[in-house]
TrEMBL record:
Keyword Protein biosynthesis included in the entry's annotation: no
Superkingdom, taxonomy of origin: Eukaryota
Name of the molecule in the record: Protein kinase domain-containing protein
Lineage: Eukaryota, Viridiplantae, Streptophyta, Embryophyta, Tracheophyta
GO molecular function (one): protein serine/threonine kinase activity
Family matches, as PANTHER family: DUAL SPECIFICITY PROTEIN KINASE (PTHR24058), PROTEIN KINASE SUPERFAMILY PROTEIN (PTHR24058:SF124)
Length: 288
């Protein structure tokens, strides 16, 4: 049987994070004995010459690498609407399962979704190294920046809905080949979100522990220029999801817009998102 063997750097931080991931994978796999929920399978782990080695199922490229290769090779586009629909259902089922166990993934991004079968368009979610239980004391620095939810940036309490935001960002990226909220700092990320999705509600701004780092008292977005050390206003460029996703059909755009609801209270859970009409739209079957 082919397996993937991950060798952990002999460094306390990597080691501790990997032990946490092993514990979580064992817990998650135990609750999914039939392997139906699209999460990586852990087979074994052991020490060898003062290194920790983790043995898990062998998967194929991650969605970031595969999408890049697909575009650069000039072949036929892989992420068509039917395949995006299939990937979405699998990711939402994985999130529904994790969230049902009280876990938040906390780092969902294209690099952490791996292909299991290209022809059948099967994927699996990996990397529980940043995951935490909702009941844990949640750390304020979570999620890779381009996929980070507004509530995390503003320093608000967060929950499993941050994974739903990340999935919305991923689907837009798979559709176009470009990061949806291109940014080089949290402030420029907020400018993109406001420009594409819309304003952040006053209540969220008022309650955010870190709102002052990005907004003036009269709600102007600003950033410190690293070269001049002067504060500069950022004016969000007004556009829309429809404009940013020209290849997407209306059902897809409506669906992504729901996942990218700025207010987490209005954002659907994984179970609610699975009921969206776009996910049952009868596209042509995926040819294997």
């Amino acid at each position: 049987m082919d397996v993937c063997m991950k060798i952990i750097k002999n460094n306390k931080d990597f080691f501790d994070q990997s032990l946490d991931e092993i514990k979580l994978l064992k817990y998650v796999n135990k609750h999914d004995p039939a392997d139906k929920n699209h999460i990586l399978r852990l087979y074994d782990y052991f020490y060898y010459r003062e290194h920790l080695l983790i043995v898990c199922e062998l998967l194929k490229a991650n969605l970031y690498e595969f999408h890049k290769f697909n575009r650069e090779s000039g072949g036929e586009v892989y992420f068509t609407m039917p395949r995006l629909q299939s990937v979405t259902i699998q990711c939402l089922e994985a999130l529904q399962f994790l969230h049902g166990l009280g876990l938040i993934h906390c780092d969902l991004k294209p690099e952490n979704i791996l292909v299991k079968s290209y022809s059948r368009c099967e994927v699996k979610v990996i990397d529980l190294g940043s995951s935490c239980f909702e009941t844990d004391h949640l750390c304020s620095y979570v999620q890779s920046r381009s996929y980070r939810a507004p509530e995390v940036i503003l320093g608000l309490p967060y929950d499993k809905k941050i994974d739903i935001w990340s999935l919305g960002c991923i689907l837009a990226e798979l559709c176009t080949g470009n990061v949806l909220f291109q940014n080089d700092s949290p402030a420029t990320l907020l400018a993109r979100v406001i420009g594409i999705i819309g304003p952040i509600e006053q209540e969220m701004m008022a309650k955010g522990r870190d709102t002052y780092k990005y907004f003036t008292k009269n709600h102007m977005l600003y950033e410190r220029n690293q070269d001049t050390n002067r504060l500069e206003y950022l004016i969000p460029k007004k556009t829309s999801l429809r404009h940013r996703l020209p290849m997407g059909d209306q059902g897809f755009i409506d669906f992504v817009a729901q996942l990218l609801e700025v207010n987490p209270k209005k954002r659907p859970s994984a179970s609610e998102a699975l009921k969206h009409p776009w996910l049952s739209y009868p596209y042509e079957p995926i040819s294997s």
